[in-house]
Design goal:
The protein is 48% helix and 17% strand. The chain is of the alpha/beta class. The strands form two sheets. A six-stranded mixed sheet has the order 7-6-8-5-9-11. A five-stranded mixed sheet has the order 2-1-3-10-4.
């Protein structure tokens, strides 16, 4: 082959390689710039602490991803309906991410629900960031199995409930015969043990039920008491708190795995223990604000039960806790081990 023809062949080959490289690089650039939009559903109203927090959380992730991750947030059940549909909607891909509480489907997440039992929190007391940290860290070993079909982003505990009451309550004996709205099955069991009459009333109907005397009390955290203006019809709050409730932010696994590794890394960094503790601190701060507001602006009177009466309540709670643990242990689940790790 003559030198001219050889040079021409080399030039042609180089052009082909350059062209292929250009196409490859363009394809890589396009893939890098692809935008992934995630639907995030929850059931609480826009005024709730979670909605306000998650707006900021998603904005931060969008900025860290340089706009490659976007979020559409659907509050108040707008996308999938009532609370008991939220987790399944994420499982089925109706939504990509869901935030919900386990208590709306009693018995479906029995290991997780152990943390809902009366007076069940770390030994140093109610501290939402620490509770969220422990639940999130313990989830892979103890709780992931019953969240099959869901990728857990983080877990968190709610502010524990107190009893809003139309009349003063100073002892366990004062609960006897009182009609009290309960927030979960475990709340109901403790109210039963104290001789109260538990009533199943939707949160939005509670103020009216108290105003009309249909109910004489209701179990809510102060943030909910603030939201539903309960102090106007139930001017007493009985402390200390009785029980918390478990929540989780979960994601459809297929959607999670479909994200490029660098975007998954951003999501992982902002979720997990970091996300759990950050939201928990935000939630706890709002609880403190709500309690102070009710006392100073709404005239709420706090009644703190004396230690001897709290001890009686804890004694009544002990068999409730033991029954729940023993039932799961008989099913071969490490309930006692999980509870010990959570409450240490």
């Amino acid at each position: 082959m003559g030198s001219y023809r050889l040079a021409k062949a080399y030039a042609l080959a180089a052009a082909i390689v350059f062209s292929a490289g250009t196409i490859f690089n363009a394809g890589a650039a396009n893939a890098a710039e692809k935008v992934y939009t995630l639907k995030l559903s929850h059931f609480v109203p826009p005024v709730h602490a979670f909605h306000k927090w998650v707006v900021g959380w998603t904005k931060k992730i969008e900025e860290e991803s340089h706009g490659r991750l976007k979020f559409e947030i659907y509050p108040n059940g707008q996308l999938v309906g009532p609370p008991n549909r939220q987790f399944d909607a994420a499982r089925n891909g109706i939504t990509d991410i869901a935030f919900c509480l386990h208590g709306v489907t009693p018995g479906r997440y029995p290991m997780t629900e152990l943390a809902n039992l009366p007076f069940t929190w770390p030994s140093d007391g109610v501290n939402l960031p620490e509770m969220a940290k422990r639940m999130t860290e313990l989830a892979p070993k103890y709780l992931a199995a019953e969240h099959k079909g869901l990728h857990i982003l983080f877990m968190v505990m709610a502010n524990p409930v107190v009893v809003y009451s139309r009349v003063p309550i100073h002892s366990v004996a004062d609960f006897k015969g009182k009609k009290i709205r309960y927030a979960s099955i475990t709340n109901k069991e403790l109210l039963d043990a104290m001789g109260a009459v538990p009533m199943l009333i939707p949160p939005s109907d509670t103020q009216d039920a108290l105003a009309k005397g249909i109910a004489e009390g209701a179990t809510f955290p102060h943030e909910a008491g603030f939201a539903y203006k309960l102090a106007s019809v139930a001017p007493y709050a009985i402390e200390p708190p009785m029980a918390s409730a478990t929540f989780a932010l979960v994601m459809n696994p297929a959607k999670y795995n479909s994200l490029p590794p660098d975007l998954r890394a951003i999501l992982d960094k902002e979720a997990g223990v970091k996300g759990a503790m950050d939201f928990a601190a935000h939630w706890q701060a709002f609880e403190k604000f709500a309690r102070n507001f009710e006392i100073t602006k709404s005239g709420l009177k706090i009644i703190t039960l004396p230690p001897a009466e709290v001890a009686k309540m804890k004694a009544l709670a002990k068999p409730i806790i033991e029954r729940s643990v023993e039932k799961l242990e008989k099913e071969g689940k490490p309930a006692r081990e999980f509870l010990a790790a959570y409450t240490k």
